[in-house]
Amino acid sequence: MHTLAAALAFALKTADAFDFKTADAFDIKTADAFTIGAPSGLGAGTTGGDGGEVVYPTSTAELVAYLNDTRPFVVVLNQTFDFRGSEGTTTEIGCRPINNRRCIAKHNGFKGQDVIIQGGDMNSTGGCTSGTEVMVTYDNAGIKRVLVRDNKTIRGIGKNGVMIGKGLSLRNNIIVQNILITDLNPHLVWGGDAIFIPGSNDGTTVGNNIWLDHLKVSRIGRQMVVTGKAGVSSMTISNSDFDGNTEFSSSCDGHHYWTFLFYGKTTGITMLNNYVHETSGRSPKVGGEVGDNVVVHAVNNYWSNNTGHSFDVDVNAHVLAEGNCFVNINRTLKNGTRGEMYAFNGGEDADVCKTYLGRPCGANFLVNSGSLTSRNGHLALEVMKAYPNIIDHTSESTDSNTVEQQQQVYPKSLLNSEAASALIQASDLEKEWVKTTGNFGVGKLD
Which residues of 143-168 are buried (b: 16+ CB within 10 A; e: fewer)? Predict the structure, then answer.
């Protein structure tokens, strides 16, 4: 019930943050003044650009230069950085997959996605199932991510920190907080990733210490967040709004399919307090490659209005899902037998988490959604035993603002069928959820 309160509180919380209009409003010398709180979960210990110079880029060129630099920086975004057109466009032969041909034939008012061919080979290009040739045009900036070198904090102010038309490629010890990334060739699969974590040394060495917090991501051609095959050992994604509303979708219904893709030889990710909505797949996809070892702790997130599937758990994936809320989800877990996932939904197995983790797990809550069942769940919990940050997680692991919001919005007396009935009105709750007026993501930043 406590978890339900948190989900409801996030859904209904709106608040203003301080709105600093210019750099002159700050008299600040350290990263701590810009980074609100600290990451919990598997990304704990990430410090970003702490101790580095605080800088205010005023052009896309300056922004790229600061992020490419080897020195630690706190890079403050208080304006829009629009990369569209800055690197020209390309028109070439692409792929029209069978799902887009069927979408066109439906005449249902939605548009599908064509595909940028990878490596010159249509047959081996992901998303190009039974493809035929078609001319495609894309903005080059969208497929060329900005390299963010080690020890950086990227911090947006109010709702002014916006990146249009280009994503980020993150190395190690990086914080990205309170920015919007949007409009990366949304009409094309492979049109661009919002955030990519490839690891170090050209993707051969596992990355570490990433915190993505209070972000909004929308209108992306490919993945909103993707980890490379080297993996990232310690990452937390928290308090963020992943908005799948799109004019172009592979599912031909205005819902984005390519949401999260978590690969890696050594990958550990906490998803905490996020709002994932209007998607149709890969929310997230976990594992699937030979040699992967991907651990995901998904806790206290809110999924809504997914027309396909949320979790896609594949080989070498180990997932613990607890305390999450699913509203209007067609399939909470994609059909299959591979991979491992433990999802606690209350009932007779209440002591299972205590046996493996020494603590109870929070129950997931489903409304108008497909069932969420464990798959090789005991094996997943056995893996979780090796992660102190998962063992030590409690409902109080959310930040103090979260707890305060719960108390303000839904007192314990309402945590019953009344609260459940309110949850059914998912569209109204989602409108409130995205109304956080002073900053991006979910919940107030001070």
Answer: bebbebbbbbbbbbbbbbbbbbbbbb
